[in-house]
Amino acid sequence: MASWLPACEFLTLARQSGFYSSFERTQQWAWMANPDRSFRSTIGTHVSRIVDEHRQYLADGARVSAYRQAIEEVVRPGDVVLDLASGTGILGLLACRAGAGRVYSVEVSGMIELAREICRANGFQDRMVFLKGLSTRVDLPEKVDVAVCDQMGRFGFEAGVVQFFGDACKRFLKPGGTLIPARLDMVVCPVECQEIWSQVEYWNDSPAGFDFRPARQWAANTGYPVKLVPDQLLASPAVLTTLEMASAPTSFRREVTLVVSRRGVLHGIGGWFSAQLSRNVTMTNSPLVAERINRHNVFFLWIGRFRWSLEIAFAFRCILPCRTSW
Ligand SMILES: C[S@@+](CC[C@H](N)C(=O)[O-])C[C@H]1O[C@@H](n2cnc3c(N)ncnc32)[C@H](O)[C@@H]1O
User: Fold this and answer.
1) Rounded to the nearest 10 degrees, how much is the dihedral formed by the CA atoms of 280, 286, 290, 291?
2) Ligand 1 pocket by C-beta < 6 Å: which residues?
3) Domains in the chain, please, with CATH?
4) Which of 60, 107, 123, 213 has the most crowded Cβ, counting Cβ within 10 A?
């Protein structure tokens, strides 16, 4: 017997609840304050947050190691590489170390100035070219053999990798060129997660003696960052969809049925991703993998009626860049 979750529209800017949110907001504020000043003075007091966010990307040993291995596997001596959404430039530096002849480092924010300095500090200034701008708005003077990017959110697709790679494939990639990652599995699993369930239920509790129930609907209709552990999973996870980066659709709907494998309380659906970086390297934030990268999973509250059943069935509809319904 299956219990179907009624489709409930929610409009969530991935950036509002997402992996990159604080960083992007910080940048926006800094530039709005004074767009003409240099990187150092413009960022001002926000610099610590920005630099620290990038420190966390670098300090994620599983992530950096996966990209290093994949880049070493894919990049051939003399290759032209695009480091899309380059941040500190780490992926471009790894490509240089793997023998790339030239790396185009494309970054929309003032981080590009820091990346340029880091590049110089490592002696790669003759091989790295820095282009400031959104990847979809910049032009490259030549086609590339390899494009690399880690613009993946908690559920994989929502931070922009699909759109940005789709555009880069059309405009920049040589025929037969390689994308890192080449494909992405979006994975789902019914989960117990009392903590977030209680957070949402809070709005039903008349805080300060007022009726705040309208807020509950908003709170229920968004994705929450969470670090799931295996004990929270109520079934074997299933792949919701596989996105081929070279040809991924910008909207899709998938249905999935999962067989519950243990007793527990269904609070919602957990989501994460597994990215195929190269033939031999995958990278994931799966709670079931010991070498998971340091990126949260996403939690969607179960908004159907509770009913004991052996199967849980639901449908996800994703419309890129940032709309999901389930
Ligand atoms: C996750 S961070 C840095 C990732 C970096 N490649 C790394 O591996 O550490 C993403 C960076 O990409 C920039 N960014 C996001 N989307 C972009 C796009 N479409 N074009 C250029 N820069 C982008 C952000 O400003 C941010 O600095």
Assistant:
1) 50
2) 57, 85-88, 90-91, 106-109, 111, 134-135, 150-151, 160, 164
3) 2-9+184-325 (2.70.160.11), 17-181 (3.40.50.150)
4) 107
